[in-house]
Amino acid sequence: MPVITLYYEDIETLIGTDKDTFIDRVPMIGADIERIEDDHIDIEFFPDRPDLYSPEGVARAMRGFLDIHTGLPGYNVKDSGIRITLDDGIKNIRPYLGCAVVRGLEFNDYSIESLMALQEDLHWGLGRDRKKVSIGIHDLRDIEPPFRYVAANPDFCFVPLDFEESMTMQEILENHPKGVKYAHLMEGFAKYPLILDAKDQVLSFPPIINGQLTRVSHETRDLFIDVTGMDQNVYTALNIVVTSLAERGGKIGTVTIENSINNSIKDSIENNIDNGTKNNIITPDLTPGHWSLGADEVRSLIGIDLTPQQIVEQLQRMRFGASVNEDGSIDVSSPAYRADILHTWDILEDISIGYGYDNIPLVIPKTVTVGKQHPISIMRN
Predict the structure, then answer these.
(1) CATH architecture for the domain at 77-283
(2) Which of 7, 15, 36, 122 is deepest in the core (most CB within 10 A)?
(3) Which residue intervals of the chain bear CATH 3.50.40.10?
(4) Is pLDDT at 357 greater than 80 in this prediction?
(5) How does the average pLDDT of the chain come out, rounded?
(6) CATH 3.30.56.10 fits 3-65, yes or no
(7) pLDDT classification of 364: cutoffs 50, 70, 90
(8) Hey, how many other C-beta atoms are within 10 angstroms of the C-beta on 278?
(9) Is residue 281 within 8 Å of 273, Cβ to Cβ?
């Protein structure tokens, strides 16, 4: 599981509390403290919460849990005016693409380190070591939209990240450290994925390496983000990255993706289809998920007697939107960056966390069981 390094100076600023309060309370949201140092703390989070793989995500969750800022986070998203076109040839190689622009950032050592760490942790947590999801983060200064996502010949040349000389894509796979590590992901393909700008300058060779041209530095103010992959986790990863950057003051801009691969993707994000062209989609889509809960279901499964309004309060502490209907049912809005909300029971778990497991009375179970070896195991032995 990912271990996140949080520097006290940074996390105190992001949350608005002191480090002692943070250290005391953070285990209650599902974290294991690995070590406490003079200037930082290392914390392990469960793999089902990739939105907590960054200081920004942890701070957002803790502000709610500490009642500093509760309820569904709101993000002002505007059209960036940038478009990227998918080449038909890419659709059999690495077909899923989500993109965004984030402007107005001011990077320091903490924020650059956290962004790079988030990128790699998402590669592991959602991306299965880049096989299903890979993320490219680019300085917008020296590149010119519109962009293209194409299938390129292996002899196409560019300067990869951390190198000074141009290499072919095949040479990168054979000689660049990242290329050697991830070359197996390109096995069996005659052409390789490539993201280019209007001048044919290289942004990224996903899922292998970015171009040196778009390297992020302390002077970077505006970012272009591409997320490529093999399934719809691409969109979740994009949502996590852009909302984390927004927690540091970034302004999120959408990107129109032209010639998207098929209707199944469009159906999954139907609220963000570009009506001008049926094969275009707009990302990121930060539309919340919508759920309905009954108070009786909550009481039955959690085992505590909460009123509908008390349930709403716990949900808001966990950064959900929630309100009580006239019939006593509860409408719930889940944040678009929460990859783990797949069923109402996932929401009930968060109600328990918000209420505090330490506040739930201890009772002896009504059923008694005795463990023994399964008969099938006995027969096999």
Answers:
(1) 3-Layer(bba) Sandwich (3.50)
(2) 122
(3) 77-283
(4) yes
(5) 93
(6) yes
(7) confident
(8) 10
(9) yes
SS3 of residue 57 by DSSP: helix
Which pair of structure tokens corresponds to residue 277? 């062209």
Give the model confidence (pLDDT) of 103-122 as tens digits: 999 999 999 999 999 999 99
Check residue 273 and report its DSSP letter. B
Q: Start-end ranges of CATH 3.30.56.10 in the chain?
A: 3-65, 289-359
Q: What letter does residue 362 receive in the DSSP assignment?
A: P
Contact present, 257 and 97 (Cβ < 8 Å): yes
Question: Is 136 buried (19+), middle (13-18) or exposed (0-12) by CB count in 10 A?
Answer: buried
Kindly state the average pLDDT of the residues 209-223.
Answer: 97
CA pair distance 4, 73, nearest whole angstrom: 22
Report how far residue 352's alpha carbon sits from residue 302's, in angstroms, rounded to the nearest whole number.
7
The pTM of this model reads: 0.91
Q: What is the pLDDT of residue 235?
A: 97
**Which CATH entry fits the domain spanning 289-359: 1.10.3210.10, 3.30.930.20, 3.30.56.10, 3.40.50.2300?**
3.30.56.10
CA angle 141, 146, 148 (to 5 degrees): 110
* Whether the Cβ atoms of residue 123 and residue 227 lie closer than 8 Å to each other: no
